[in-house]
Amino acid sequence: MTQNPFTNGTGASGARSAYLDASIATASPARLLVMLFERLVLDVTRAVDSQRAGDVQEAHRQLVHAQDIVLELRASLQVESWEGGVGLASIYDFLHTQLVRANIRKDLALTEACLGLVTDLAQTWREAALQTANVA
After folding, report:
1. The domain that contains 85 carries what CATH number?
2. What's the CA gap between 74 and 88, in Å, rounded?
3. Does 20 score more than 80 pLDDT?
4. How far apart are CA 129 and CA 31, in angstroms?
């Protein structure tokens, strides 16, 4: 069974988990992408906060979950389907490498840089999803 990338393995309550599962099952592909990026921003934000607080274990947990999301985004990317696919794949690969480095080195500045990148990417995908929704 595949782990839900939105839950971070925290054992959400039954009702919350059912709601989340239903939200995911009924979301459009564009909305799913936005949801993944929102979770990615949350994970990296939590990692930054944990690093600032000196909680190495929690920072590690959040960064590993963020890495998993980026790997999922990269694996689901159909590079050949559009002109920007190769460039986006490179961004995902770079981001994954930086998240791993930030985790290994326990590097707050690098984690903050990753947060800036994922925040920008999330905003870009939100705008793209809105444009797609307005066209449909």
Report:
1. 1.20.120.340
2. 9
3. no
4. 7
